[in-house]
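Researcher: Going back to the complex we discussed earlier. I've cleaned up the inputs and rechecked each line, so this should be the final set. Can you rerun the prediction on the complete assembly and write out the structure?
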Amino acid sequence: MKEFPGSEYAVGFVFVVAVLATIAGASLAALTTRIIRGVCGLMLCCVGLAGLYYFLHAPFLSLMEILIYVGAICVTIVFAVMLAEPDEAPARESRRAVLGWGALALAISGAVFWGVAKLGMSHAWAKPAAAVNTGSVKDLGVALLTTYSFAFELISLVLLVAILGALVVARYGRTKP
Amino acid sequence: MNLSYDKPEIYLAIAAFLLAAGIYGLIRRRTLIGMLIAGELIFSAASLNFVTMNRFFVTDPAVGQIFVLFIMALAAAEVSIALSIIIAVYRNYRSIGSKDLSELNG
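Model: Rerun complete. Updated structure for the full complex:
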């Protein structure tokens, strides 16, 4: 089959877009003072991550990333933002304290980034001898319903308990109409 | 930097960046929801690392994907519980700034 002209460049462009979306979204989520912008940054980061998962041969995970993170978690956080007015008040601490804590946080996170990235890049990871399956959606389904069926059932129980617990905790302290 | 999407290095670097951004947010955020968002970034870093290792260095490429699915389910459960706690805290204190919740501060 003849390849579409320029398809290699198009794939590279999509990859760069996914990488930039992930990095920009994470920076936005960590740096803005307004919470709602942070939520939007988290959404952007998750869309970029879905693209990266697609490049890592995990299309089912990229679908689930968009469904669960963008569709459920971010929307839930937006609801909490509407209910709780979380905008940060102007800092009560002095300007020097703000600068000091910011520099400390930047130093710690910079050190973590440098260390982890250096470790991941310089370590000689061993290539596997042979793959036993291709990691397709069919293999995922078979593994979920055979090897991991017990964990699969347990996770549904955890989700049920989480829903009930969230309802009970949020209902406590509410005045009767 | 080598920008090839068939090599693990770029993915590992992005995962390290997500972890660093999450740690920065956890230290600097002054509200509970902001800290929750930073925690989600750290979850994403772990997931991206899992999928990268799963794609390049593993004999059974289904295991890492299933593990990441479980991470996503646990993250969803954690967010629902944490947000309901945050709403309850807001009802009692009229604020969700982490500085205002100092009742146990001796």
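Model: Worth noting: Chain A has a mean pLDDT of 87.
Researcher: Good, that matches what I expected from the previous run.
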